[in-house]
Amino acid sequence: MDFQIANFINHFWQWSRRDVFSQYISRNRTMIIIRTLVIILAVIFKRKYRKFVVFSFVLARTLFYGVSEIGFKTLLVQETGIKLRPYVTYSWTIQAIGKQYSDSSFPSSHMVLTVAMITVLIILFPAVRPYAILYVLLMAWSRMHNGMHYPSDIIAGTFFWILCGWIAVVLSKRVFVSK
């Protein structure tokens, strides 16, 4: 079923403006710009908690790299082998759109970092929840539409990274609220 969903999303509205949009959403430069703007706005609107906000985002990103990139994509791959991306495994039917990555598809690094950062944002600014969720859904769609991930890569990473974002906020509160 993982393949069928990935294949459907990859072919749905293919060769259209949506291809350009999906590339734009998951482009690293776009993600950096969006995250930088979010942090700047958070610091502006939460001046009193500036250090807390920045520390929460930095901690979420650090957890992302430590667990996802080092844990899953390096150490786990040595034990279990690489999970090939859909466009590699099913090259005859799933087309890669945008930058082609050669690392393991599990978990989606784009989704992991997005969800960890968005979790922090939602906890700090509950009013932005609908926009944050929309951004997460667009990222999930774009990663599958671009042929980079299976739904299981997205779903498994999402639930785990909500926890990482929450951990970042809890640890930040312990560091800054106790002062």
Morphology:
globular
Q: What value does the average pLDDT take?
A: 78
Compute the separation of the termini in Å.
51 Å
Strand content: under 5%
Strands, count: 0
For the largest beta-sheet, the strand count, sense and barrel status come to:
none
Q: Stretches where pLDDT falls below 50 for ≥5 residues?
A: none
Number of helices: 8
N-to-C SSE series?
HHHHHHHH
How many structural units, i.e. domains? 1
Estimated structural class: mainly alpha
Helix content: over 70%
Radius of gyration, taken over Cα atoms and rounded to an integer in Å: 17 Å
What does this structure look like?
With 179 residues, this protein is mainly alpha-helical. It has one domain (2-7, 36-176). It is built from eight helices and no strands. The longest helix is centred in the middle third of the chain and has 31 residues, at 50-80. The protein is globular, with a radius of gyration of 17 Å. The mean pLDDT is 78.
